[in-house]
Amino acid sequence: MKQDQSELKSSLPLDSATRKPIEPARVEELPPFTLAGISAVTTNEAELSDNGKIGKLFEQYYIHNIGGQLADYVKQPGHYSCYFNYEQGDAGRYEVMVGVNVREECQDPYPESIRTFTVPAAKYAVFVTEWGPIIEVVQRAWGDIWQWSRQSGNDRAFTGDFEYYGQNINPNDGQAEIYIAIRQ
Questions:
Q1: Residue 100's closest CA among 180, 54, 34, 160?
Q2: In angstroms, rounded to a whole number, what is the distance separating the alpha carbons of residues 180 and 98?
Q3: pTM here?
Q4: Which of 55, 70, 53, 163 shows the shortest CA–CA distance to 113?
Q5: Tens digit of pLDDT for each residue in 74-116?
Q6: Rounded distance, CA 77 to CA 86, Å?
Q7: What is the distance between the alpha carbons of residues 115 and 105, in angstroms, rounded to a whole number?
């Protein structure tokens, strides 16, 4: 018998003591693509403290309607949170961008506060979060990804990792995909 989504979601264990860590749902190779948005430099240490910048970056993205400002440039619906320019893997500084996938051939100038980053071609381990409050399920998934990346044979490339959020994601009950670049 098929369960509906609400029954399935309510049966998922959220307690870290009983919840099974997520594993990659698939491995996928992607060509390079360009993101445009707003960015900040941070560390995992800062993000685990009161000095985190990622939450504030998302706030600014929505307050200033960055997605709307870039609507004419969008190649694929939805938005991204991309991690790149890693200094020491997940132990050092890195840049994070919240933005959209844009057409590379666009000649019009972007609004002043917008920067771009071309995500390089790579092979990705793709993690699919549980359903739930998006901030919580993404944070839990990253904890699982950090554990997964420390296992033998799971070699992160640190060339550009990203979260993909569908166009009509519900922040209170959503699901995201997290793409982790891996060495080939």
A1: 34
A2: 16
A3: 0.86
A4: 70
A5: 999 999 999 999 998 888 999 999 999 999 776 678 888 899 9
A6: 27
A7: 15
